[in-house]
Each structure stands twice: as structure tokens, then as C-alpha cells.
Design brief:
It is built from ten helices and 15 strands. The chain is of the alpha/beta class and 333 residues long. A hairpin with a 2-residue loop joins strand 13 and strand 14.
Length: 333
């Protein structure tokens, strides 16, 4: 099988813009892990990656062909060409501005196999507001989310405003008084959520159109910098699901959003009253990079097995080990 891998930031998607090096380093963390997992398969896979020519290759391995995207050639041309010349495509990209959704639509329009969530799932998950509404309809514990009105301050004592389609900590601001809100200059495509007290975690989950298998619960290390947030790192498989409640939560999300397929991440706050869902990330997340070491199993193999068998394989319970990914180092902080 010939598989096209696209990590959007490092793969030429931003070739005509200034390179965001922190995001590029985070992207390479995921790309290296995915390539390593796929090459570890017993059966031979041929991998094609697109690569921004301003960046060095993050690895040198047999079975990987790098296609350089330069200032003089078109990312879209290379992307469409290699979609047509590969059997399956695995994009990693931000949901912001419809980027990931459009990449998925391109693959679907070409009639090729998409190894991630389909465009319909990305479209829903890209909107924090629509995601919260869908999850609330199914009675799931989701953070209260509303549109932001410059003329009407939310009733919460402290709250967070963020772009509706933002990724991670991108653009999020803590608002504690009316003056901060008046000084805000965002658009109506922003949402407000209460500032919750608790531990920031994420779930790494395999989804299969209404079914789910929890892979790990990961501790996120988030600092407050000024009025915003910065993700400094993540400890994969840091929290055990001793009572099965997180697996049950993943299953509830799968029923609420049956469009989800393959790997996705779920951001939560563990409050004193239990977990509260913040958002769904319908793509590889940074935590993916630690899964094989943490669990002793290959998550990419699980995705390919899901593709061929339609089954989620639940392996015998084992605790594994925590694996830390330090973004302060990889992002050059």
C-alpha cells in the first residue's frame, strides 16, 4: 500500500507564509512517530511525505519518499497529484479556517482511502459551539459554551474567550473584568466558556462510527502566560482508568458523534464533580507521539486493522507506563 502522509505545517501548506517554528517542531514530533509506527508494520508500506523545503528532513529511512514543496511550485498541485498516485492518505492539519476539512474533502472527492476522521466529523468538531451542543443533546458532561457578544458580558465571574475553530490554546484569553472584554477586538466567530478549576487532561481514542476504544488518558502541562495559556508538554498514559469511567465517556462521545473514525483526541478538565469535555480534536494530537512507547502497542497498526476488519481490537488490560513529551524543548521555548 502506498500512503501519502501530510503534516500541513511542515509539508508545504504554509510555504508562502513565515514558518511558525513552534508549530513545525510539534508537527515533526507527530510525523516522526507516525512514520515510525507505519514502518514498523510487518507488511511493506511505501510512504510519501510532502515537505516544506525550508526545513530539513526529520528522518532518513528506507521506504519513505520526500517530495519537496518550494516557493516556485504549488502546494495544491503537489497535494492533488500525490493523492491521485497513492492508495491512502493520512493528513495532519489544524481545523482552523477549514484547513483540515478541505484536505479531507479533497481525498474523499478523489475516491481514495482516508485514514483519519471524515470531513463530516471534522466539520462538526472544528466548531466548539456546535460540538458542545451535540454532546449536550446526548447528556454528556460538556463545558457550557456560548457565542460572545461585545455588548453583553457572560455571567460567569471568570471566563475564557477563544476562536470557535481555534486549535488547542490558540487565541484563548481569560477575562475577569468588564474592561478586559471591552478591550477585546475579536470577531463574532468567538465563543465564551467558564474558567473551570481542575486538571487539564486529554484522551487518546480510537473511534469506529459509534464505537470507541480508549487508548490512554494524558496529563497536559499548561501554563498561564499573561491572560492566555501555553501547552508546555504532555505526559502520555499518565492517568489510569481504574473504574472504566473514561472508557464509558469515550463510548458516549462515539454515540453522540458517530461520524468519528480512527484516531482522535478529547480535551477534558477533571473537576471535583467529574470530567468535563472541552473539545474534540478529529486528527492526530501531540499525545500520539508517545503512545507506542507508553502502551507497548502500535496505534497506526490499530488504525490499519480497523480499516481492513472494521473492528476495534480490545487488548488484555495492562497499565503500560507514562511517557513525557516536553514541548518546551521541541518548541524551542
Amino acid at each position: 500500500m502506498k500512503i501519502l502522509l501530510l503534516e500541513y505545517v511542515t509539508g508545504g501548506g504554509m510555504r508562502q507564509e513565515a514558518m511558525p517554528h513552534a508549530l513545525a517542531n510539534e508537527g515533526d514530533t507527530m510525523l516522526r512517530a507516525l512514520v515510525g509506527d507505519l514502518l514498523a508494520q510487518e507488511h511493506g508500506l511505501e510512504l510519501i511525505i510532502l515537505r516544506d523545503d525550508r526545513l530539513p528532513l526529520p528522518f532518513h529511512a528506507d521506504g519513505v519518499q520526500a517530495v519537496m514543496v518550494t516557493a516556485s511550485n504549488s502546494f495544491q498541485t503537489a497535494w492533488k497529484y500525490w493523492i491521485s498516485h497513492c492508495d491512502a492518505i493520512w493528513p495532519i492539519a489544524p481545523e482552523t479556517g477549514g484547513i483540515l476539512e478541505q484536505l479531507c474533502l479533497d481525498v474523499e472527492a478523489a475516491g481514495k482511502t482516508l485514514l483519519t476522521c471524515p470531513a463530516s466529523a471534522v466539520r462538526l468538531a472544528a466548531s466548539k459551539l456546535n460540538t458542545a451542543r451535540r454532546l449536550a443533546e446526548f447528556g454528556l458532561p460538556v463545558v457550557c459554551t456560548g457565542t460572545l457578544d461585545n455588548d453583553k458580558r457572560p455571567a460567569w465571574e471568570a471566563f475564557v474567550i477563544k476562536p470557535d475553530d481555534g486549535v488547542g490554546c490558540e487565541g484563548a484569553l481569560i477575562i475577569r473584568d468588564a474592561g478586559q472584554l471591552q478591550a477585546w477586538t475579536g470577531t463574532d466567530a468567538w465563543i465564551a466558556q467558564p474558567l473551570l478549576t481542575g486538571e487539564s487532561v486529554s484522551l487518546s481514542v480510537l473511534f469506529a462510527n459509534g464505537r470507541a476504544r480508549l487508548l490512554s488518558c494524558n496529563r497536559q502541562w499548561i501554563d498561564r502566560v499573561g491572560a492566555g495559556f501555553v501547552l508546555r508538554g504532555v505526559t502520555v498514559n499518565a492517568i489510569a482508568d481504574a473504574d472504566g469511567s473514561l472508557q464509558a465517556l469515550a463510548e458516549g462521545i462515539a454515540r453522540a458523534v458517530p461520524e468519528l473514525w480512527g484516531y482522535a483526541g478529547i480535551d477534558l478538565i477533571l473537576t471535583d464533580d467529574g470530567p468535563v469535555i472541552l473539545e474534540i480534536n478529529p486528527r492526530l494530537t501531540t499525545s500520539y507521539a508517545g503512545l507506542r512507547s507508553a502502551l507497548g502497542e502500535n496505534p497506526a497498526a490499530s488504525v490499519l486493522r480497523l480499516l481492513t476488519t472494521g473492528q476495534l481490537h480490545f487488548l488484555p488490560a495492562r497499565t503500560g507506563k507514562p511517557v513525557h513529551i516536553d514541548l518546551r524543548v521541541s518548541c524551542g521555548d
